[in-house]
Amino acid sequence: MPNPSHPPARASMLSVARQPRMIGLLLLFLLAAAVCARLGVWQLDRAHERGDLADRQAAAEAQSQGPEGLGALLEPQSTFPGDLVGRQAWVEGEYVPGTQMLVEGRAHDGAQGFLVLTALRVSDDGTGGASWADLSGPPVLPVVRGWVPATADGAEPEVAATVLAEPTGPVRLSGYLQASEALGQGSDVPGRTDSISSASLANVWGGPIYSGYVVVSTSDPAQPAGIELLDRPSIEGGDGLNLQNLFYALQWWIFGGFAVLLWLRLVRDETRGGEKSADEDPFGALARAEA
After folding, report:
1. Burial degree of 235 (CB within 10 A; 0-12, 13-18, 19+)
2. 261-268 long-range CB contacts below 8 Å, 24 or more apart?
3. Apex CA 29: angle with CA 24 and CA 30, to 5°?
């Protein structure tokens, strides 16, 4: 029979940590920490991968002799590789009448305006038609002919409609490749859009269609003077290690460390809770007082 004059022995952190419940929690937290560590390593790999895209792109262009045929870089209805952003390509075809759209809310040299987006029915991409031989017909390529400024209130383009009208007849383009954008919210204004999404454009223009678009750098015949050519698209993240993914990696590793620290905190609180219970037990205090 225990002596009431002596309080219960205080539990140590080691004895609390050896309890089956705490061991189970430790295994659970270690599993969470391992998952966080793996996600951190994945984000670090992404940081290196995205940071190296610009270097791979520069090396590929150094080996090429000017713009390449579009079909040698990207086939219609195929996935757009990330390292093609900014690559130069040429293509021939005819603009499809009635397909031109203005892409809203696009800035250029600090001014607000619109991108001029038109569908090009491809007739030659450097493959002699082999790239779409298994498809339903010649593909449609989204082409950004350039940028036009908006009026002071931003509601309409400053240039006249005759400047915006797509050229008729065969045209040969050289330009920079860019990946299709995410699906936007659309626009309430007819002939406008807020994104260059191949998935959305296929519903309007029909297919087959490319998973990217071309930003015009040269055109034969030349475009009207009122449409400004755009700069070469750049790979998101730039050169070197991508800092955004690096920060994500650090966050995952910190979360993993918190999982282990949380278990230690539970053990410590459990230990202190036992000490407090022994010191504040009214029956134990009463027994000691009567003795």
Report:
1. buried
2. 262/29, 263/22, 263/25, 263/26, 263/29, 266/22, 266/25, 267/13, 267/16, 267/17, 267/22, 268/13
3. 95
State how far the Cα of 16 lies from the Cα of 11, in Å rounded to an integer: 7
Task: Encode 193-213: b = buried (16+ Cβ within 10 Å), e = exposed.
Answer: bbbbbbebbbeebebbbbbbb
Give the pairing type, strands 101-108 and 192-193.
parallel
Q: Exposure of 163 by Cβ count < 10 A (0-12 exposed, 13-18 middle, 19+ buried)?
A: middle
CA–CA distance, 30 with 59 (Å, rounded to integer): 43
- Three-state DSSP state, 111: strand
Name the more confident of 194 and 249: 194
**What is the rounded distance in angstroms from the CA atom of residue 210 to the CA atom of residue 267?**
58
Residues in the chain: 291
- Reported as a single tens digit per residue, the pLDDT across 63-99 is 656 789 999 999 999 999 887 888 899 999 999 999 9
The answer to whether 89 and 112 are in contact (CB under 8 A) is: no
Give which of 29, 39, 98, 15 is closest to 245, Cα–Cα.
39
Under 8 Å between Cβ of 41 and 48: no
What is the C-alpha separation between 227 and 163, in angstroms, rounded?
7
Q: For the chain, what is the radius of gyration of the CA atoms?
A: 32
Give the separation between CA 199 and CA 259, rounded to whole angstroms.
Answer: 42
Dist CA 288 CA 239 (whole Å): 74
**Mean pLDDT (whole number) for 46-61:** 61
4 vs 26, residue with greater confidence: 26
Which 3 state secondary structure label does DSSP give 168? Answer: coil
